[in-house]
Specification:
Helix 3 crosses helix 7. The chain is built from 19 helices and 19 strands. The protein is α/β, with parallel strands linked by helices. A 5-stranded mixed beta barrel has the order 15-16-17-19-18. A 5-stranded parallel sheet has the order 3-2-4-5-8, sandwiched between helices. A 5-stranded mixed sheet has the order 9-10-11-13-12. The chain folds into 4 domains: 145 residues, Beta Barrel (OB fold (Dihydrolipoamide Acetyltransferase, E2P)), CATH 2.40.50.140; 219 residues, inorganic pyrophosphatase (n-terminal core) (Alpha-Beta Complex), CATH 3.90.1640.30; 75 residues, no CATH class; 103 residues, Roll (Diaminopimelate Epimerase, Chain A, domain 1). Helix content is 38%, strand content 19%.
């Protein structure tokens, strides 16, 4: 497709013209455009989830019977915010003395519901467990909990690994755990099937409040008198998790992310306020990039390098001094994490240099730490424009890793299509996932994945839409605040609503410099007949760096974002 300029002359288009072109590319009706730009806070009926009524009633009974309640959450930036959503709910009810949180250690226990975690909660005399972002594949573990007299109210959003069951929901067959209740967007009639884990927990809270939130609610001993609209304060974490977990930002997810950003700018959480302050983030000008590239890495660093409880405590604490201490600790842990990632990425670049890469690249080393390899895969995917599966040796001797995918590739579909025996287990979302394999089988993974890919039809509308977004030609004079403001009306950006990528043709590189602790980032000053702009890239590969040479004329594919020192800069995605 030939790039289509906004105008046939180099005159800078107005912000209104740029906005209109971006609107046209959404291919929506006039009403659809209005709904997209100004989402209305309207969510579905939470009781359309199968078992939601049972889930709400069981927790209500546990509260009234003075039972010990456990929250079993994942260790990432979906599960931890979801756990805090439930903690806030139990705080307002006033039963925090009977609520216990368990988050598994990424290295010792690994992902998901496990026997160790159930044992720990059982020792605390827990008789009801609420899961967050985990449990849908824990068939044996949840059966074990139920056999001990512990009722499990399962809330999750991940796809089941085993779909070979006689039970059919919404056209899909699932092998579901024998939990007391299963609250999952793929099971039942709830219209939004792509919610993140924290959003599913939020739907539980909405349902509970709807049924028991008022003093005149139908209940055995009265309701809880929760203030009208109180649950909207939870949207800061729900929106954050929606952005962090790479679910499609369309339909209801766009509503959650959009209003989540609004609430985040006013968040009452002292932990988030401390993180923003320490990283010079202006809450009034907060963007999704601040959350996904500054806040999320620091929270995720807790489970990658230390304990996930540090991140949980930061989000849930009401103690401002403790929040500042935790912020400093997580910053130090994240600095350590960044160095580990940088070392692995540099090693990977050296291994890849000069090689012709397949569509899906598998790379790894037994010395690489599995907990950070999702970040490594993301860096490699961005640098080389390929899907990457990256592995290292886990604590149990198996090869464990993470993948990050191009829009045209679906991680879950590809792994499900592999021949039996290639992976011990694997799964995730469309854009990302995790996997494990034996030392003998890991080297068969790359050809097997590419073979599966060859047999899949290319019908990915999202990938095609992403390609269409790359054909907007702009002059450098559009690297201006007024044009960025027009682009930001389409935010928040993420999976399903990618940030618009623009083509800046025939720009001259006037100067370059490397920055960052490892000097592996590149910033350059570029000019064309309409003006001058600053452009940059993170973790540039050697191949990429060779294209950024003073005096050279190139074309840049990139996004526009606010600069560190004011103004607007171009984030380079590709050099032509």
């Amino acid at each position: 497709m030939q790039p289509a300029s906004l105008r046939s002359d180099p005159t800078t288009p107005t912000p209104a013209e740029l906005k209109q072109l971006l609107l046209e590319r959404l291919d929506l009706s006039d009403e659809g455009q209005k709904t997209f730009l100004e989402p209305v806070y309207t969510l579905g009926d939470p009781f359309l989830f199968r078992d939601m009524d049972k889930a709400v009633d069981r927790i209500h009974l546990a509260i009234k019977n003075n039972e010990q309640i456990g929250i079993y959450a994942d260790y990432d930036c979906d599960g931890i915010p979801g756990a805090v959503v439930l903690i806030d709910f139990f705080k307002i009810i006033g039963i925090m003395d009977r609520v216990h949180v368990y988050i598994p250690d990424r290295h010792m226990q690994g992902y998901g519901v496990n026997a160790f975690g159930i044992d720990e909660l059982s020792k605390l005399h827990v008789t009801t467990i609420l899961t967050v972002d985990v449990g849908i594949t824990a068939i044996a573990e949840i059966a074990d909990a139920q056999s001990r007299g512990i009722d499990v109210v399962l809330t999750d959003h991940h796809l089941p690994i085993d779909r070979h069951s006689s039970e059919s929901e919404g056209g899909n067959s699932f092998n579901l755990p024998a939990a007391f209740a299963v609250v999952h967007p793929m099971v039942g009639d709830y219209p939004e099937k792509n919610l993140c884990g924290a959003a599913v927990a939020f739907m539980f809270v909405r349902a509970f409040i709807q049924k028991y939130g008022k003093t005149d609610s139908t209940s055995l001993t009265g309701g809880y008198n929760i203030p009208e609209g109180w649950e909207k304060w939870l949207l800061d974490l729900v929106g954050f998790a929606t952005l962090s977990d790479m679910v499609p930002l369309v339909a209801e997810n766009r509503v959650l992310a959009y209003y989540g950003m609004m609430v985040m700018k006013k968040t009452r959480r002292v932990g988030l306020q401390a993180l923003f302050s320490a990283n010079n983030i202006d809450m009034n000008r907060l963007t999704e990039s601040d959350l996904t590239f500054t806040v999320a890495p620091r929270l995720n660093a807790a489970s990658r390098m230390a304990s996930p409880i540090l991140a949980f405590e930061l989000l849930s604490t009401d103690d401002r001094m403790r929040a500042m201490e935790l912020t400093r600790e997580l910053t130090a842990i994240n600095d350590e994490r960044k160095q580990v990632v940088a070392d692995i990425v540099k090693n990977a670049y050296a291994r890849i240099a000069g090689k012709e890469l397949p569509s899906i690249v598998v790379i790894g080393d037994e010395s690489w730490r599995p907990a950070v390899l999702g970040l490594v895969a993301g860096k490699l995917q961005e640098s080389y424009g390929k899907s990457f599966f990256v592995w290292g040796e886990g604590g149990d001797g198996t090869m464990k890793g993470s993948c990050r995918m191009l829009p045209a590739h679906n991680a879950a579909t590809l792994m499900q299509g592999l021949p039996e025996g290639i992976l011990i287990h694997g799964g995730g979302h469309k854009a990302a996932g995790g996997f494990a394999a034996t030392k003998e089988q890991i080297h068969l993974l790359e050809p097997a994945l590419n073979a599966v890919l060859q047999n899949l039809p290319f019908t990915d509308a999202e990938a095609m839409a992403d390609e269409r977004r790359k054909d907007i030609v702009l002059p450098l004079s559009c690297a201006a605040v007024r044009h960025l403001n027009a682009i930001r009306t389409f935010a928040p950006f993420g999976v399903g609503n990618p940030e618009p990528v623009f083509l800046f043709e025939n720009v001259s590189i006037e100067s370059t410099k490397k920055f960052g602790k490892a000097k592996d980032h590149i910033e350059c000053t570029v000019t064309d007949s309409t003006g001058t702009a600053i452009a940059f890239t993170f973790f540039a590969s050697d191949t990429f760096a060779k294209k950024v040479v003073t005096g050279k004329t190139v074309s840049l594919l990139g996004t526009l974002e606010a600069g560190w020192r004011g103004g607007v800069r171009i984030h380079i995605k590709e050099i032509i």
